[in-house]
Specification:
alpha/beta, Aspartate Aminotransferase, domain 1, Aspartate Aminotransferase, domain 2, 7-stranded mixed sheet, 4-stranded antiparallel sheet, 16 helices, 15% strand
Length: 398
């Protein structure tokens, strides 16, 4: 069973109940992750407020422009970030938004007005369909339709054969809820061409676009050039405090800024978030290809480790990660896998799996693994040893 293919409302209700039941375990996991001597997946957003403030202060020491007046309603340093993103993506302009949900709603409603068609074609596992409580239809009056089948992006054939017209095709790169998967470059270009044949515009949900260059073998500018507009996030891969940017043609971005104000997204001062985004672009963006390459080493070691430990069925998906993030699937209830992961951290100060485990079907659980700076210290032997130790804590191995 692939998570995200069921009705979104029912899924959300079940997930909320599951999370409430797991709160004590979540607190233990957070405490174990903070105290652990080594953690394979460690993102800075899990740190304490003091640690986050210290990080920002130290990282921005010596940064030019700190003696300038702080931003007010999107000027100053916010404009600097927008110009930098536009330069990185090769677009005419970019606009900063407090959230990606808002940025994408604004982008798609602007395109709907220009094309005269409020229909947005997107995969059933796309972020707006799974995680945004029907925001497109409830807030922006857009009409999402699902295109494509299975845990992968839509194909060119599926776009060409889709039974009804649509004004915009939205592609999430990578498709997170399918396992952070990407198409081949040739497949992506064919999908975009198929949308153009139908007189549709193309929007990239590029929340994690920053780490796609290694898989595609193309620059950010080349990838973004395929789409009419692109959204990028500053916290998912860059360790920022939050925030997003929408990049594209100057006239559309100016219109988007008007809608940003109407949506309540023109915040009085945003310099802490913007500074953290600039730090992420300086520090994390150049390292993402290295993270992707090491994620492939870790993924192979995880597969080998579970096979050697005799786990009857275990999967790493994709087998060769497309980005620095991937999923691990195990034949256990999520509570059992989560308890083993937390106990390993508590008892050994080494945490192999620091993220939550979720149900993927009866007796089947998955977690997400992301390789960042802390994960680079883990050799394949380290990973295999940690897998053995983790498996020893699963319930039927006691």
């Amino acid at each position: 069973m692939i998570r995200g293919m069921t009705d979104t409302a029912e899924q959300g209700t079940g997930r909320d109940a599951e999370r409430s039941a797991q709160e004590p375990l979540r607190d233990r996991r957070a405490a174990a992750r903070r105290r652990a001597r080594r953690t394979l997946s460690r993102a800075k957003w899990g740190n304490t407020i003091r640690e986050r403030l210290t990080y920002l202060t130290e990282a921005t020491a010596g940064m030019p422009g700190l003696d300038e007046t702080a931003d007010v309603y999107g000027n100053g340093i916010v404009t600097d970030l927008e110009e930098r993103v536009a330069a990185l993506l090769g677009t005419e302009a970019a606009a900063f938004f407090p959230t990606g949900t808002m940025a994408q709603q604004v982008a798609l409603r602007c395109w709907a007005a220009r094309t005269g068609d409020p229909t947005v074609a997107l995969h059933a596992l796309s972020h707006p369909e799974v995680h945004e409580r029907h925001a497109f239809s409830q807030v922006s009056g857009l009409r999402p339709v699902r295109v494509g089948h299975g845990p992968r992006l839509p194909t060119a054939a599926e776009i060409r054969e889709f039974a009804e017209p649509f004004g915009t095709l939205m592609l999430e790169l990578p498709l997170r809820d399918a396992g952070f998967v990407l198409p081949a470059w040739e497949e992506l270009t064919e999908v975009v061409e198929a949308a153009r044949e139908r007189d549709a515009v193309v929007h990239f949900d590029g929340a994690r676009l920053w780490e796609c260059t290694e898989h595609f073998g193309r620059s950010l500018e080349e990838i973004a050039a395929l789409a009419d507009t692109v959204y990028v996030s500053f916290y998912k891969s860059l360790d920022g405090f939050g925030g997003a940017a929408l990049a594209g043609p100057r006239t559309l971005i100016e219109e988007a800024k008007t809608w940003r104000h109407r949506y309540g997204g023109t915040v009085f001062q945003q310099f802490p978030t913007v500074l953290s985004a600039l730090v992420g672009l300086d520090r994390e963006l150049p390292r993402l290809p290295e993270y992707v390459r090491h994620a492939r080493v870790v993924a192979a070691a995880l597969r080998e480790g579970f096979a050697a430990a005799g786990v009857p069925w275990a999967r790493v998906h994709p087998e060769v990660p497309h980005t620095h993030e991937f999923r691990v699937w195990l034949p256990y209830e999520p509570e059992a896998a989560a308890e083993a992961a937390v106990r390993q951290g508590e008892e050994t100060s080494v945490m192999l799996f620091g993220n939550a485990w979720e149900a993927a079907g009866p007796g089947l659980a998955f977690t997400e693994v992301g390789i960042r700076a802390a994960g680079l210290d883990w050799t394949a032997d380290d990973v295999r040893a940690a897998v053995r130790d983790f498996v020893d804590r699963l319930p039927d191995r006691a």
